[in-house]
Design a protein that fits this description.
Mean pLDDT: 86
Helix content: 10-25%
Order of helices and strands: HEEEEEHHEEEEEEEEEHEEEE
Strand order of the largest sheet: 3-9-8-5-6-15-14-17-18-12
Number of strands: 18
Bound molecules: copper (II) ion
Largest sheet: 10 strands, mixed
Low-confidence stretches: 1-35
Strand content: 35-45%
Radius of gyration: 17 Å
Distance between the termini: 25 Å
Number of helices: 4
């Protein structure tokens, strides 16, 4: 859950997260790197309450992040690339503000692994440009304090190298994984296949066509629940959210893309964007960026 700003949405989601945390225990199957990804640089990033373990430096270019939640609460790893002059502490201050503008003034969404339950795992593949990055977690427990305010943020440096001689997004895509499908995010729409067959993991390329920052966060709906129930919970500060965090890819800056590998159990799901809108401050999910899909 990334860059969430609306106080009302925050409250609703925080209560949702509390429920999810208590529910706990969803096991996400461990993915094996497939053959066409063997050339990728692989980075393990682990989350605990309330820290990350991530290498201090990562080479630029395509990187496969294996995000593992080894904590007892739901966690995510939203990456930001800092603009020049920005610091980690300035970013954390900006993230605490109710709207997204102070954050976007000093940093850009750089993808990351969306929230998974304790014991869960989410793999994302990102094309990283050199620079200083920060990983942060927007989840919160029963005290409603976002984890980034409990110290759950960590900076790392993406170092320039031969793989990333150019700043051009496409030039960084050598060795990119073959995507089963492309998901396009835009103001305010999120489209993905309505039915996903689970005979094998699904590799999605997620492209943000802007103009705003967007994410794709996945929720597995509880049995019998529908998109309607999900939307109703989103709009109510006291509504019980009808599902469990199931990963996805965290917020990407406009006109950038990443890959997310989904290994989802059969069931009904919702994908949504919770980035707050730059004009209305509402989460994009309330402005149409939500889609239901079925895994069978
Ligand atoms: Cu969005």
């Amino acid at each position: 859950m990334a860059l969430r700003g609306s106080a009302r949405a925050r409250r609703a989601l925080l209560s949702l997260l509390t429920v999810l945390t208590l529910a706990g225990g969803l096991v996400v199957p461990v993915a094996q790197a497939s053959a066409n990804r063997s050339a990728l640089h692989v980075v393990l990033i682990t989350a605990k309450n309330f820290t990350y373990e991530v290498p201090a430096t990562i080479p630029a270019g395509l990187v496969e992040f294996i995000f593992e939640n080894r904590g007892s609460q739901t966690h995510e790893a939203q990456f930001f690339r800092l603009k020049s002059g920005a610091t980690e502490s300035k970013l954390i201050t900006a993230l605490g503000k109710p709207d997204i503008k102070p954050t976007l003034a000093i940093a850009a969404g750089a993808g990351g692994a969306a929230s998974v339950l304790p014991g869960g795992r989410q793999d994302v593949i990102l094309s990283l440009r050199p620079g200083r990055y920060v990983a942060a977690c927007f989840e919160a427990g029963s005290d409603n304090i976002p984890h980034f305010l409990k110290g759950m943020h960590k900076s790392f440096v993406v170092t320039s190298n031969a793989r990333a001689a150019s700043d051009n997004d496409d030039a960084l895509l050598n060795g990119a994984p073959r995507a089963d499908s492309v998901v396009v995010l835009r103001d305010y729409q999120l489209r993905l296949p309505a039915v996903i067959s689970r005979d094998r993991p699904l590799m999605l390329r997620v492209r943000n066509n802007g103009p705003q920052t967007h994410q794709m966060e996945i929720t597995k709906l509880n049995a019998g629940k529908t998109l309607k129930d999900y939307l109703r919970a989103l709009q109510s500060s006291s509504g019980t959210p009808p599902g469990k965090a199931a990963g996805g890819i965290d917020a990407l800056a406009p006109f950038t893309s990443g890959w997310v590998e989904l290994r989802l159990a059969p069931g009904n799901y919702v994908a949504a964007c919770f980035v707050p809108d730059i004009k209305t401050n509402k989460p994009h999910a309330e402005m149409g960026m939500v889609a239901a899909f079925t895994v069978r």
